Amino acid sequence: MNEQAQVKPTTRISKVWIIPILAVLVGGWMVYYQWKNQGPLITIELKSAAGIEVNKTPIKVRDLDIGQVKNIELKPDLNGVIVTARIDANASHLLTENTDFWMVAPRISFSEVSGLNTLLSGSYIAMSADDSGGEQYHFVALERPPVTPPGTPGLHLALKSDDRFAYKPGDPIIYKGFKIGEFEDASFDIDERVVYYNAFIEAPYHKLITENTRFWNVSGVKLHLKSSGVKIETGSLETLLTNGITFGIPEGFPAGEQVGDNATFRIFQDATAASNARYRLAAEYLLLIDETVRGLTVGAPVEYRGIEIGEVLAINVTSAVNGNILDENYPIPVLINIYPGKVRQQDNPESLQFVKDTMHKWIGKDLRATLRMGNVLTGGLYVDLQHAPGVEPIEPQILNGHEVIPTVSNEFTQITQKADAILDKLNELPLNSMIGDVQSVIVDLKEAANSVETTSNDFDALMEDIDVKDINRNLNQVLANMSSLLKNYSEGGLSKSEIQETVDAMQDTLRNLQPLLLQLNQKPNGLIFSDNSSVDIQPKAQSKGVFDEKP
């Protein structure tokens, strides 16, 4: 039996292709999902690409990866690099005009130590979390990390200073020893020649900033050699190494209302300048100094009866007096001011006029200015206003709109004048004749000294001729004889009567020898040569006859 084969058609697609097809579908879905959910590409301008690697360097927000660097290329002007990065879609809403990028790397300075965690993990690009503002995809990175992270509670301030040095971002703001803020950035205004700073005060210290707050410099160590003495000022240990400022409210001044963001304040040189800034009005006066002004400085105090009421504004004000210091009898003009607020008056025009009227009356009567030395060590001078006794009333003088306060000599000048008077009297003395007399006296003294020296030499020679040993020998012999005599007397030698008889015999003998000694005294050679003289006639009594006996 013949059976015919049945031919069945086979499928054109093998089941084996199901797996590749499924893989393609899954892959396509993944690609579509990745394309649909991937974030945008952004470009960031940086100074250099140091520490950045393609497909490795991440972009982080609060240490969370939200993107990665995809490409690096040079800028067309060769002034930096442009980094292209992919940002995750869930972070794309942070790409606004207020977003900042910066490079995080190890950074060590006087004011901060940061980025040390990147020593092991590597550098990365940090991004601020700020979703306010319009959408933006091209950014210029900051040169350094921002001092204050966005969203930090506190107060932003605008400060300005005309000091000879500038504060750097990160320099501290100190209050009573605590760091409560920092400088964020700085810019220089060429037209005003003033440096402007953006600073941040942390909460809750920002409540201390009011409309009457004053800021001043406390950088390093300040040594002030003023008329009041030596004064040393310093801030905290941090400000010894870096620049820094502090703030406060002047004593006796109300705090005022709190300020808002970006309020502007000035940075003063020191606490004194900051305190004086509260006085807006001042009366200016001119002093004409006939003496030296060495030791007088701008800012030196002006005192009345020991109380500071003002300060020196300028020395040698050329616009006040015509001429120059080389002219004979040219007075040096010194400009001072007097604050109404320092004489317990209000800081208003009425009090200012009251001060001017009072000063005008006193100047015409007896008010005088004197330069006095405030400290012997520094030699600093200050202006002292006093009522001088015995002065004649005058009519106040006005030069170039400034009333002139008459001056009197200070103590040093008076001492100098007295010394000059003494020297003049010395010059009037007859010094030439006095010098001649002194020279003659010196010659006499020299001759007397020579005579004394000669006498001393003769005495020395006489003393040399004396035999000290012979004298000692004779004294010893006398003492020995005396001892023998006393011993003989004590042992029963001559009795007292016998000694008395011996002494009487010696006196008789000496009495008999007295005429001979008298003759030898009158004529020493009488014993050798005879003069054939007769025997001395003894005087006799007068006879009773008419004639006397003829000799």
UniProtKB/TrEMBL annotation:
Record protein name field: Intermembrane transport protein PqiB
Domain of life where this protein originates: Bacteria
Keyword Metal-binding: no
Pfam families xrefs: MlaD (PF02470)
Gene: pqiB
Residue intervals passing through the bilayer: 16-35
Domain Mce/MlaD per the UniProt entry, residue ranges: 39-128, 293-386
GO CC annotation: plasma membrane
Keywords: Cell inner membrane, Cell membrane, Membrane, Transmembrane, Transmembrane helix
Organism name: Alteromonas pelagimontana
Location(s), subcellular: Cell inner membrane
